Amino acid sequence: MRHLELVMGIPMSVDVRDAVDEQIERAAVRDAFDRMHDADRRFSRYLPDSEVSRYGGRAESSDLREVLGIAEHFGELSGGAFSVRRPDGSLDTDGVVKGWAAQRAADTLTSAGMTTFCLNAGGDVVVRGEPELGRGWNVGVRDPSDPQSFLTVLEVRDGAVATSGTYERGDHVWDGRTGQVATGLRSATVVAADLTTADVLATCVLALGPDGIAWASQHGAAAVLAVDADGELLTSLQAAPA
Questions:
Q1: How confident is the model over 134-156, as pLDDT tens digits?
Q2: Residue 241 predicted with pLDDT over 60
Q3: Cβ(199)–Cβ(98) under 8 Å?
Q4: Per-residue pLDDT for 239 more than 90?
Q5: Secondary element (H or E) of residue 80
Q6: What is the pTM of this model?
Q7: Can you spell out the DSSP letters for 159-189?
Q8: pLDDT at 28
Q9: CB half-sphere exposure, 228, CA atoms < 13 A
């Protein structure tokens, strides 16, 4: 079963390869997407009635406390480079929420008995199992200088891949230590066990610059690929799971 719809203003899709009851499959996929839509409504800084927009220093829900806890954890690990506070002081949880919400959606599918699927959240991917016996899921890593080309294609089983870059949204990641836009890297891709970790680490690497590659490998990344401001490809020494 394949399903595609817009969530958070970006296309998100799922490809389920399990041979299970169709009604169970469709219900699980609907539940997964509903969870991501719910996260968008509650955490969007563009909606005046969202919990993030109303935030006044105290989280209203356990979910926001969890998201802020993740942000605080990685903020401390990165020495303050990762932050959900924008330079103007406003709260922006975008660096956590998309990966967190997509991972929760993937967990919903797993809880419903799905064992073989690919959930693609606007280019950030969670995969489970093998689409074909002996072959993992192919996940392309886009070349930031050419939207029609890939730097590489990763073969991944039971893992997640996330990319943070400047090629679509411009310079939107800042270094929390300085409040200045992070310009040392054009893109950073992280492979990790779950998409929450992969997504936050990718943003951390972009904020830290080239030094973030080795740092991420010490804090949950199975592999890191980055492109610096001069277009040079930089990678960690660890191999991506296959």
A1: 999 999 999 998 888 999 999 99
A2: no
A3: yes
A4: no
A5: none
A6: 0.93
A7: EEEEEEESTTT-S--EETTTTEEP-SEEEEE
A8: 96
A9: 12
For tokens 């969670």, name the residue. Answer: 126
Amino acid occupying residue 198 = A
Token look-up 């480079």 returns 81
Which token pair is 40?
């968008």
Strand residues in the chain grouped as ranges (E): 2-7, 10-16, 117-121, 124-128, 137-143, 146-156, 159-165, 174-175, 180-181, 185-192, 223-228, 233-235
Residues 6 or more apart whose CB falls under 8 angstroms from that of 70 comprise: 96, 100, 196, 200
Q: CA-CA distance, 20 to 49, in Å (whole number)?
A: 39
Separation CA 54–CA 160 (nearest Å): 31
Q: Could you report the per-residue pLDDT of 161-214, keeping only the tens digit for each? A: 999 987 666 567 889 999 899 899 999 999 999 999 999 999 999 999 999 999
Helix axes 94-111, 195-208, angle to 10 degrees: 160
Distance, CA of 182 to CA of 166 (rounded, Å): 10
203-218 pLDDT, tens per residue? 999 999 999 999 999 9
Cα dihedral sign, 44-45-51-52: positive
